[in-house]
Design brief:
The complex is a heterodimer of chains A (363) and B (115). Chain A is built from 19 helices and no strands. With 363 residues, chain A is mainly α. About 24% of the residues of chain A have low confidence. Chain B is extended and about 60 Å long. In chain B, 39% of the residues are buried. Chain B has 115 residues and is mainly alpha-helical. In chain B, α4 runs antiparallel to α5. The mean pLDDT of chain B is 83. The chains are: A mainly alpha (363), B mainly alpha (115).
Chain lengths: 363, 115
């Protein structure tokens, strides 16, 4: 794992290094850049600033770098390797900052005299506000969520293949529906032989929360044309919503935030479809996979999703009710038990919430 | 290897799901300003994901064959689910929860398939 992270960081550095070479950076700048990095000036500078959160992450890279240098020394490779490593890590600073905070041209070097005299940030400032950089920043910020979505996509593909859904239907679902949890629910309903209108109705209930996402996004999308609105609305998954709304709420007055949203959404979309395809291929290639216990992947995944929700008493009450009712009403035709359980659970949750707030008022 | 053997009801299903999902995500944009959610509805929506997921988990774990309640400790689904709850509660890590509980599930299944 560490080796992999290292390799990724190194290649990132290298790309940034090449870019710097392309934009022109002489040897003195190299050295100054390096010095700046090694002494961690920028870290101290920003330790007390409100943006410390971001800077803390940079500090983390910094410590990694020190560790790396230490190993390098102990291995007696002070010559060529040391220099290469330093070059890489020196530029990592810029790479990380560029990725972490793409919309603040020269922010990280602006407060730093050394950097200012070098005038390094000029080459990048024009790029940082462009739609393209917004697009890639969006994709980059979605990355941690993508990592979580990869196993989901693959498991979905595998399950769909073993549940008897056709290839076209599975891929079509990932392409046109693009809503992870409802797709999982759909597979479990298909497995139980449910009729399609019932599946569509269940999808409606499961995805109803997305309406809130839409409502949240209305003020942010108000200047966009209909096509943009439709495209962005199509990609309004849980993940993209979470990333995009954070970006929109950051008040820096920059335009083109919709490109950020688009980048996040397209990255998510591509990944979801690729993973579905991989899972589907695996499921078709090894049909005996259905006996490997993958059918347990779905309950396991769902439990993992539900647990973080269980932080309040009403939530507990609603979940316990839903679980009980789903067993009691399990015999209802067309999988109606699911709907009954869902409605009962939500009702109990709301009632419990109301009771608790009344109790508080009395106290 | 893959036939494009899509059935008619699968087309209906996918099309229906796509329309419903897109409709939900898009509807607020054209009607914004003219319509406000009631507060109760908004609060209710927060309960939907965990409740629906629970309503799917519980029967699939406690009634693996779809009809009879199986509360024996030989039920690998039950053991796996308990493990998943424990790991999820302790570590709050989705991937860890899935992987470890699946290993436990498979181990249990294998152990009782032998006996």
């Amino acid at each position: 794992m560490l080796v992999m992270i290292n390799a990724i960081i190194k290649s990132l550095c290298f790309i940034q290094y090449l870019r710097q070479l392309y934009f022109g950076l002489n040897l003195n700048q190299h050295i100054a850049y390096l010095e700046l990095y090694i002494h961690g000036i920028w870290y101290i500078d920003y330790k007390n600033s409100s943006r410390f959160k971001i800077w803390r992450r940079c500090y983390y890279w910094h410590s990694l770098k020190l560790l790396y240098t230490f190993f390098d020394h102990s291995l007696l490779c002070r010559g060529f390797f040391q220099k290469t490593v330093n070059d890489f890590w020196g530029h990592m600073k810029d790479a990380v900052l560029f990725l972490e905070y793409p919309d603040s041209p020269g922010d990280f070097s602006g407060k730093n005299e050394k950097a200012e005299t070098m005038n390094m940030s000029n080459t990048t400032s024009s790029r940082k506000n462009s739609p393209r950089s917004q697009f890639f920043a969006g994709a980059k910020d979605t990355f941690p969520l993508i990592v979580g979505a990869i196993p989901f996509g693959i498991i979905f593909g595998t399950l769909a293949a073993t549940a008897g859904l056709s290839f076209a239907a599975t891929m079509g679902m990932s392409m046109f529906v693009f809503a992870g949890s409802s797709q999982f629910v759909c597979v479990s309903l298909v497995l139980a032989g449910t009729a399609w209108p019932m599946i569509v109705l269940t999808t409606f209930v499961v995805n109803l929360r997305h309406m809130l996402y839409g409502a949240t996004m209305v003020p942010f999308y108000k200047d966009l044309n209909t096509l943009w609105k439709m495209v962005l609305a199509f990609g309004l998954t849980d993940e993209t919503f979470a990333v995009a709304v954070t970006r929109y709420n950051r008040e820096d007055g920059l335009p083109d935030k919709h490109y950020y949203n688009l980048g996040s959404m397209l990255f998510m979309y591509t990944n979801w479809n690729l993973c579905t395809f991989v899972g589907l291929t695996a499921g078709k290639t090894f049909p005996e996979m259905s006996q490997w216990g993958l059918d347990f992947a779905m309950p396991a995944t769902f439990i993992g999703i539900v647990i973080p929700y269980l932080v309040s008493k009403p939530m507990w009450a609603s979940v316990v009710t839903a679980g009980t009712i789903s067993i009691v009403a399990g015999g209802l035709p067309h999988k109606l038990g699911l709907m009954v359980a869902a409605i009962a659970g939500v009702t109990v949750g709301l009632v419990c919430e109301k009771m608790l707030s009344r109790k508080k008022e009395r106290v | 290897m893959f036939g494009i053997g899509i059935q008619l009801n699968e087309i209906y299903m996918v099309a229906g799901m796509a329309l419903v999902t897109f409709g939900i995500r898009y509807i607020m944009f054209p009607i914004s300003g003219r319509f406000q959610f009631p507060e109760l509805f908004k609060r209710g929506l927060r309960y939907v994901p965990p409740v629906v997921l629970t309503a799917i988990i519980v029967p699939s774990v406690l009634m693996p064959d779809g009809e009879t309640l199986n509360l024996n400790l030989t039920n690998p689904y039950l053991i796996g689910a308990i493990a998943a709850c424990a790991i999820g509660g302790l570590f709050k890590n989705l991937l860890l929860t899935i992987v470890v509980s699946m290993v436990i599930f498979m181990g249990w299944q294998w152990a009782f398939a032998l006996g």
